[in-house]
Amino acid sequence: MSESLQLKFRDVFGVSLAILLGCGGAGSSTPSSLSANPQAAAPSITIAAQQNGAQLVKLGAVTAGTTIYYTVDGSTPTTSSQIYLAPFLVASNLNLQAVASGSGNVASSVTSQTFSPNIASGTLVWSDEFTNTTGASAQPNPAVWGYDRGGGGWGNAELENYCAWGSSASPCDTTKPNAYVGTDGYLHIAAQQPSTGVYTSARLKTQGLFSFQYGRLEFRAQVPEAQGFWPAGWLMGNNISVVNWPACGEQDVLERVNAALSPDWNAGSIHGTGFTGTNLGSKYSFPSGQTAATWHTYGIIWSKGSVAYYVDDSAHPYATFTTSSISGLSGSVWPFDAGQSNFILLNLAIGGGYPGNPNAGTPFPSELLIDYVRLYTN
Fold first, then answer.
1. CA separation for the pair 364, 368 (Å, rounded)
2. Which one of 33, 66, 357, 360 has the largest count of C-beta atoms within 10 Å of its C-beta?
3. Strands 198-201 and 160-162: what pairing?
4. CA triplet 59, 60, 61: central angle to 5 degrees?
5. Among 225, 146, 209, 153, which Cα is nearest to 179's?
6. How confident is the model at residue 6 (pLDDT cuts 50, 70, 90)?
7. Least confident span in 35-44, 50-59, 188-197, 362-371
8. In this structure, what is the dihedral angle of CA atoms 350, 351, 352, 354, given to the nearest 10 degrees?
9. Is the preceding peptide bond at 77 cis, omega within 30 degrees of 0?
10. Alpha-carbon gap, residue 297 to 135, rounded angstroms
């Protein structure tokens, strides 16, 4: 082909035919526009209605192998933004932006959706009432609750093996479930001793199924009180699988150990990078004559820059932690406003370094009972 004809081809098609044919001689290469990786498809958004105008949002990766990054403040997401890990509740006005990116793909275009539910403060937007009309013990809602399983101490030298609903792996026993919704309308988390020195219990969690950021969460619960028991209702960040604990943040709403004291108590605490253990925690003392072994409502009020705890009276928190609470702690990082939503955990641990081990007076079986879990707008 003559040089003039090649120039005409370039004018029309924007590239030399010699290059396309690979005959441009030494040092020639394919244009980057022809070798560029394909662009990932934009994430999908699926919405499920919840209570009083709230919605549960699920993001989906259309292109296999991509990771979804998102923001809820209207800013453009990047690979430094929050990674989508689980469905999250939307109960406030916000602008969701999401992109998909992965090895071998150019980042997708942005998927966006504006939510304007205009829900009033104090509105119930999600709950599990543990209703059961089957006439027999029932499985906790599998669309909401998953389980941690097995033993190994869980980082605290605990003694229990956690059993899921329907688990028959020894020492779990399907005829004696450790987690079930009774015909009484309560969630039962049962501590059992199938043989000497062997203990079973359950740890339920909404991880990967349901999460939320900000709001007032309540557990109405009745706890067992005896040496070696460690009941808890708490929250952790969805991003635990990415940044690990304690960087994901932990908020302990219901927590106490061992036998009743006078005054009896509940502990509320927060944990994050630079503040674990007893750095930021406070005990609530029950009024004279009351114990944690009767029904109480344990709550957290989570707002931007603030985590507050209450027992029975949301108008009077007994502990409030803010970003300034960690100012004197070396290396501390406030994790509760990083953009991630948190998931819920309910469990009854047995033994370990904090409560100590059960003794001859510890009754088995014993149960942590949960009447409901409710989430309200702030």
1. 12
2. 66
3. parallel
4. 130
5. 146
6. very low
7. 35-44
8. 90
9. no
10. 27
Instruction: Check the CA dihedral 250-319-308-262 and report its sign.
Output: positive
Could you read off the pLDDT of 128-155 as tens digits, one per residue? 999 999 999 999 999 999 999 999 999 9
Whether the upstream peptide bond of residue 358 has omega within 30° of 0, thus cis, is: no
Residues 6+ apart with CB under 8 A from 215: 89, 91, 125, 302, 375, 376, 377, 378
At 242, phi and psi to the nearest 5? -105, -45
SS3 174: coil
Tokens of 253: 């709403």
Which two three-digit tokens encode residue 37? Answer: 């990786």
Q: How far apart are CA 156 and CA 159, in angstroms?
A: 9
Give alpha helix (H) positions in 258-353: none
Domains of the chain (ranges, CATH numbers): 3-35 (no CATH), 44-115 (2.60.40), 124-376 (2.60.120.200)
Where does 198-270 have alpha helices with state H?
Answer: 240-243
pLDDT mean over 355-377: 98
